[in-house]
What does this fold into?
Amino acid sequence: NAGVTQTPKFQVLKTGQSMTLQCAQDMNHEYMSWYRQDPGMGLRLIHYSVGAGITDQGEVPNGYNVSRSTTEDFPLRLLSAAPSQTSVYFCASKTGTGVVEQYFGPGTRLTVT
Amino acid sequence: RKEVEQDPGPFNVPEGATVAFNCTYSNSASQSFFWYRQDCRKEPKLLMSVYSSGNEDGRFTAQLNRASQYISLLIRDSKLSDSATYLCVVNKYGQNFVFGPGTRLSVLP
It folds into this structure.
């Protein structure tokens, strides 16, 4: 199993540009989520999904959209990039919503200039 | 107040030392607790779950005090390879994980 994969690994955007961060998992996990990690802030939840067709907002959803058309894929869209969105983005997945380990992708380092 | 708080660190310790990290959480309804490890510029990975009775995994011991809403991680006989950031994670059943800001550990030769 590849686990959780993310593309791209690095990205530089200009303010106002849009882009999609890709996330896929091959473990048949129902639950998927996106976090951003900033220095001193820890990981903050952006959006999450408990299954195909179901998404919900996390702690910091503004400026981001998600969709979940399949169990495997959970893309994160930046609608109009801002410098405040410069961060490291992690996608994660786990089985269901119970008390189980959450697996993370390798992350995408995004810089918005 | 943040939902999960940790020792600010960084901790710089010599090889072989024992080091302890503390974590407090504010939501008394939290039901599951974890320590994750994150190496520099890498993704977080589960180090160990934390059980009510306390649990040990080799050189690592985790303890939970529900009354004080406090979690700890003890690392004995520190190795250079233990250098990383340690994340305290709290979860309420059916809810999302909440991560602390992390405590950075550097083990020095």
Q: What stands out?
A: Chain B is about 0% helix and 55% strand.
